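Researcher: Good morning. I'm working through a list of sequences from a screen, and I'd like to move beyond sequence-only analysis. For each chain I'm collecting a predicted structure so we can compare shapes side by side. This is the next one on the list. No need for commentary yet; just the structure.
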Amino acid sequence: MDAKGVGGAFFDRKAHAIGFLAKRILDRLPETLDPSREESWEICVDDVITELHCSKGAVYEVFHVMEAFLLVTKIGRSTYRWNG
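Model: Good morning. Structure tokens for this chain:
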């Protein structure tokens, strides 16, 4: 359901949910990496925020969960490597 927000604009709760954000981030990444080609994907948090129009806190929350499941590894300030 949509609810009217400030100024009569519609606010879609689903679009701002952490699970939905995680799915949108995962949809941008490959399911598997080819170890024989030494393939590596790096993800910059700032790029994700800009492209998906979401808050920095929500993106870091998703990446912390991914890091706990060993799907990503933090390699620098606001940069993660996708492990698949």
